């Protein structure tokens, strides 16, 4: 019996591609920041390595604390509450001179505050950061990923929608593609990542906001539809096949129908 995934993709043609699988670098935590094996603190300009106070506040979504650290008000409040010891402690935890943190600070893999907020679905913080520094929306880490990539991989539809809305409000039209359609090192768009991980709600959101992403293939020649089928997410597949021009390309001359057959027989 033909599965529901097979029925969804049976109208697509085979596209010949070369398969070239690429592995993601595993990350590990160093001094309060997520660092890839190929990156290190010394590669980041002095004063721009994200301090632990700022990283933890962003990771946990403490918006007011993040803003306070960026403006210096948080340091002043803590100093007033606890005396100069708190001020000295905060300065000791910072990796930059002065009392204020900066939106330019990055982690070991060059992720910004917005990358962190997006990966954790902190929409209030995402909004505050983008309004203060719109360049964060198109910022790239060491694997050439934007905050949108991070939100899509983590399965956060709300964060994805927030980033799109903020980009349209704060980014010039000729630069908008650098936010919504950017590709990482393996050539994946945000839709590729959401489809690969079977995040149906994110795929549906992306297809509403930027359906043209379904046309794209990555470096290995693989389409979001193929990845959605391989993930086994009917929700993700249904969202993509609703766009008639979506690519069905997969590796080694396969297409999404092949993937559906593999899933059915697995």
TrEMBL record:
ANK repeats lie at residues 186-218. InterPro entries: Ankyrin_rpt, Ankyrin_rpt-contain_sf. Keywords: ANK repeat. The keyword Translocase does not apply. SMART domains: ANK. PANTHER family: NO MECHANORECEPTOR POTENTIAL C, ISOFORM D-RELATED, PGG DOMAIN-CONTAINING PROTEIN. This is Uncharacterized protein. It comes from Eleusine coracana subsp. coracana. The gene is gb29323.
